[in-house]
Amino acid sequence: MKKTHNRGYKFSQYVLPQIILLAYTVLALFPIVLIIQNSLKTRKAIFKAPLTPPLPGTFSLEGYQTVFERSNFQLYFVNSLVVTVVSILLVLFLGAMAAYALAEYKFPGNTLLGLYLALGIMIPIRLGTVSILRLVVSMGLIDTLTALILVYSAQGLPLTIFVLQQFMQQVPRELKEAARIDGASEYRIFGLVLPLVRPAVATVAVFVMIPIWNDLWFPLILAPGEKTRTVTYGAQQFLGQFVSDWNAVLSSLTLAMIPILLLYILFSRQLIRGITAGAVK
Amino acid sequence: MQQLSAKKRKKPFPTHIVVFLAPATLLYTLFMIYPLLDSLRLSLFAPNGEGTEVFVGLQNYITLLTDQMWSARFWGALRNNFIFFLIHMFVQNPVGLLLAALLSRRALFARGTYRTVLFMPTMLSVVIVGFIWQLILSPLWGVAESIMGAVGIADLFQPWLGLESSALVTLALISVWQFIGIPMMLFYAALISIPEELIEAARVDGASNWTVFWRIKFPLILPTVGIVAILTYVGNFNAFDLIYTAQGALAGPNFSTDIMGTFFYRTFFGFQLQLGNPTMGATVAAMMFLIILLGVVAYLFGWQRRMTVYEV
């Protein structure tokens, strides 16, 4: 009697969670694996046996050939990289400066300015698209990566400032006062505080990066030209044109996924630690 | 002490404060706040046929809500958007909570691997996810059908994305598949930060896992539940990419997957034969702004206020 109770307990305690998590893991991975494995097969094998991995008889790279011959994936990739990296650097640097000032100095309007800068966390920047487009046109920045960088930076700042401000408030006062007594300038002290909030900076960087890299809306509206296409928009256009060429479609999907997946697997530890850091502190 | 140091600093003009704050504030104001306000202003204007825009008061809003051509699309998109949101709210968030609860168990085998894998779809671009699922659900390829066949339910297969009755729900579930990682991580972070002593105390008193979760853990993570809810709301009323990728700007079949984002895009950017209409577009954006604002206000005053009371 006690034994069966134990067994039931063990099942609900250890086995059931594993079954649920495993089932969900399959659901999360299956679509990704399916696309990647079929991108490496001949057209015939893609349709005949989509669920089997590429074998010597069915292996083919024809899809990748089409993609590299007919599209500028390399260019799209560089564009996405430039836009994402420059935006993140701008957001983190300008955001950290503003957050530091809000957390460190008491000046009239401090709270109000903090609220003003936080408004953008809840209000999607897309709602201002009509005017953003006009603004970008009037600045002569249409079809440039600069336009995307400026918009994404504005989009990322509110959350960055809000989060970093919380963390900067926790940096011990004595440290800054000691530096001041030693005659350090306010800029130097900012330089001292910045490394102390590095975990928060990493967290924010991830939250700012993903939507920028994956965005379709602004490239579609502000930079639709061939030369400024990002991976997301470029893939969308390419896929639209080659709908019937399954090899090319599967290969381009794989090419668009692989960089992000590799980066993610490499950094997932730090990344997840960063996401959960806010809660644990 | 603090006052004293503040006074001391007041003497010379605090240039450094301006240097720290000005770049971010200017960039944010120019590319975020100004466009939002200017869009609201534009929603009160209309082109007069000679290339200039004239003030028309609330006429655009009246047109949007009452004119037959506009109002059917507007109310349709709003209704669809609510369905889209409710599916996220009641599928994505509960399943995310379940996964987080399982992940946060102390003696879980392979926890790190699960965490990494379950968050993976969230990292992918919506465009990629949209295409992947389009392929999987395609009757041409037959992957979904043959998998259903393996468990003997192949007869139930239908081209869900192509049917008016099921396209919206299918797209919402695809979006749930992708974004479930976000509520999962937020719940997970909240759950692992609960002090162990609280749970141990309950265990000593003989409480089961189930009781511990619903009586102790869940009440403690209620603030996160609120945050997840409002993030889902804002995110869904701002959605566009998935519908555009899978169904195009016309959000077919027969507008059955049209949500505010696609309606906004068609209105201001134009599609096929219809020319773009920036001022009507601004009006649609203003309505979206209002809808999102209502949600945020409800959250801040209806939910978060109660939370503070609870926490005290």
Overall average pLDDT of chain B: 89
Percent in strands of chain B: under 5%
Number of strands of chain A: 0
Q: What is the architecture of the largest domain in chain A at the second tier of CATH?
A: Orthogonal Bundle
The CATH superfamily of the largest domain in chain A is MetI-like
Instruction: Give the CATH topology of chain B.
Output: MetI-like fold
| Helicity of chain A, as a percent range | over 70%
Number of DSSP helices of chain A?
A: 13
N-to-C SSE string of chain B, H for helix and E for strand: HHEEHHHHHHHHHHHHEEH
SSE string of chain A: HHHHHHHHHHHHH
Distance between the termini of chain B: 29 Å
Oligomer: heterodimer
CATH class of the largest domain in chain A: Mainly Alpha
Count up the helices of chain B.
15
Secondary structure category of chain A: mainly alpha
CATH level 4 superfamily of chain B: MetI-like
Query: What best-fitting shape of chain B do the alpha-carbon axes yield?
Result: globular
SS elements, strand count of chain B: 4
Count of folded domains of chain B: 1
What is the overall silhouette of chain A? globular
Which range does the strand content of chain A fall in?
under 5%
